[in-house]
Amino acid sequence: MGDRTLLGIVGSVSADSRTRTAVELALDAAADRHGVETDVLHLAEYDLDTADGRGIDGYAGDTVEALDLIVEADAYVVGTPVYRGSYSGALKNLLDMVPRGQWQGDVAPFENAAVGLVATGATDHHFLAVDQVLRPAFAFFGAHAVGGATYATDADFDEGEIADDAVRERLATLGAATAELAAAVDESAALGSLGPAV
Ligand SMILES: Cc1cc2nc3c(=O)[nH]c(=O)nc-3n(C[C@H](O)[C@H](O)[C@H](O)COP(=O)(O)O)c2cc1C
């Protein structure tokens, strides 16, 4: 699996991001266990345009860099802070600029791609946001989202690190599962060609 690039997308605009810590733990486990290359697209580090329906070639600057990272990666671990019971507006804006082959560009980077899903929130109240709001966004793209998402709360962190062993292990397993799903998709003609229904 060594040639595959697993991109962590961090949908937080906070420089000191819990979501980034969680996503990086998953990426590191995938690198350790399966030898994948990893990279991070953290929205705090990019000054993105606002999506307005133009084609992917119409963007400039940081937006091009961010979209190129997505187009060039093979699989993804996508993390978001929960905002108002949903994923962040910054992540929504990014997803609104990613083509799915039919509109805004011929490329469809998320189509048939393995995607691990992560969310962090203040408390347990909104743990279902990752499955009920973020997962459908990737269904829209015809991605293969790993079945078990991972959710962490403020109580799982201590001085910027994830202190809860069960959460650490779950994130590591999610990273490994994403790399393994990417390999399985590559080996399967059916999984690699299904795409979205419409
Ligand atoms: C605008 C805003 C809305 C938020 N809404 C929620 C929410 O609905 N539910 C929740 O559990 N936490 C909510 N939070 C807390 C964040 O999700 C939580 O602190 C998260 O871990 C921050 O991740 P980050 O450090 O990667 O930015 C909100 C935070 C902000 C700034």
UniProtKB/TrEMBL annotation:
Its cofactor is [4Fe-4S] cluster. Keywords: Flavoprotein, FMN, Oxidoreductase. The keyword ATP-binding does not apply. It comes from the Archaea. Residues 6-155 form the NADPH-dependent FMN reductase-like domain. Pfam families: FMN_red. One of its GO terms (molecular function) is oxidoreductase activity. Belongs to the SsuE family. Isf subfamily. This is NADPH-dependent FMN reductase.
